Amino acid sequence: MALAMLVLVVPPWPAARGLLRNYWERLLRKFPQNRPGFPSPPWGPALAVQGPAIFTEPANDTSGSKENSSLLDSIFWMAAPKSRRTIEVNRCRRRNPQKLIKVKNNIDVCPECGHLKQKHVLCAYCYEKVRKETAEIRRQIGKQEGGPFKAPTIETVVPWFGRETISKDVSRFHSTLKMW
């Protein structure tokens, strides 16, 4: 004799309780306990649920009322708009002055290169130029020193044009001092 077993894995949503109750009642109706001519099995269909302990309670109502569970128990209700927004409300929401792009009044011309920049911020074009010069200076210092683990005991100084240096080990590079 074959035994029927049902295994369900249900996420622990609050609305799943009513859905499980409906399916459990349908299963109990489809598999009657006493079939004519066959002895009743010692146990019924098994229900395995992943979730809190409230899902393992029997779904039989002890209140005595045999009314069918409502349709709302077996449906997962989703958030949906109940009425359409008017065009005036939509326009007010979209054109809200707090959401509009703000006009910048702090734009200035870079005195070094002439490109536009924000006040009190380095010009991006000049910064990129200085970054490339710094990379070139570091590469030349690396060639002079012979590698990262062969650094000399005295520091390497990079003088700018128009400045005096006191150090003995001076590397000469052709660079001009920036205003900032």
From TrEMBL:
Signal peptide boundaries: 1-18
InterPro entries according to UniProt: Mitoribosomal_protein_bL32, Ribosomal_bL32, Ribosomal_zn-bd
Gene Ontology MF terms: structural constituent of ribosome
GO CC annotations, alphabetized: mitochondrial large ribosomal subunit
Record-level GO BP terms: translation
Superkingdom assignment: Eukaryota
Pfam entry (one): Ribosomal_L32p
UniProt keyword Ribonucleoprotein present: yes
Location relative to the cell: Mitochondrion
Alphabetically ordered keywords of this record: Mitochondrion, Ribonucleoprotein, Ribosomal protein, Signal, Transit peptide
Main location: mitochondrion
Record function comment: Component of the mitochondrial large ribosomal subunit (mt-LSU). The mitochondrial ribosome (mitoribosome) is a large ribonucleoprotein complex responsible for the synthesis of proteins inside mitochondria.
Family: Belongs to the bacterial ribosomal protein bL32 family.
Full protein name: Large ribosomal subunit protein bL32m
Originating species: Macaca fascicularis (Crab-eating macaque)
